[in-house]
# Entry
Amino acid sequence: MDEKGFTILELLVAVVITLVVTAAGYTLFNNSFNFSVLHSRTAEMQRESRMAIDIMSREIRNAGYGVIEPFSGTVQGAAAPIQVANNVDPDPSGTPNQLDRITIIEGYDTIGTINATTTPGTNTLTIKASAGIDPTNPSIVGNTITIEGFYYGTVTAVAGGGGGVYTLTLGTLLDQHPYSTLNSVMLVRTITYHVGVPSAGAEPVLYRDDPNGVNQVVASGIEDLQFAYLLNDGTETNAPAAVAPPAAPTIRAVRISVLARVADPKSSATKISTRPAIEDHAGAATADRYHRLLITKVVEVRSLGLL
# Structure
């Protein structure tokens, strides 16, 4: 009877206080964890979207390099160096004909330098392949090349390989200006940028497609891709006609808009932001749980032979 202890009421009070402190600690931990996750995702979203627009800007700026004849400004080949596709892709919710895509043709991949001064009027040249490049694997036969942005022709055969030196047979005769061993040889590539959803439930990504069928993911979480074009007659439009230089109107500059998003990790976060209207793509009607970042950049096209 002399032993002392806790009463039932004291135990209940202690349990309640413990539960309250535990709940508060869990809430603080959960909020801190969600904030950390959101901060990390947001930083990654900013990094990837800025990198994506920088890559696109560089390639759009050089569109037509090796395709446009520098002196006449005419297109060498059958296709315009910038091909516009307005409102052709579905948005991430599946609504068709909402997002844009763009296709660019330019000399992009350097495969080597000329190994011996060329002879005008012939259809062969020898090149010293760049480190790690083997023109026979994968074969560049059927691909178009440019020499320093001037010569433009299709490779019909590749021979050699000893010491990294290869002989290219071309479908078009070399022009009347000999090229020296200081000149580089580049493949002319057709690159397309578009947004797609890799699989059901996955986040949308920005793709960079090349003619070899490789769909490279440039950035993830890209919700919208829109373009506007300034023509050399002063017109601004979202869907210019497919007119190749030097005919007018021709594209002078491109405005790129990339909208990235990241979901809030809190399950209770349901109405954070609303997808904005960009160019001719109307905004969403309701808010959702995504944080968004819009980056817009205007790029002047430099290689279309325009004055």
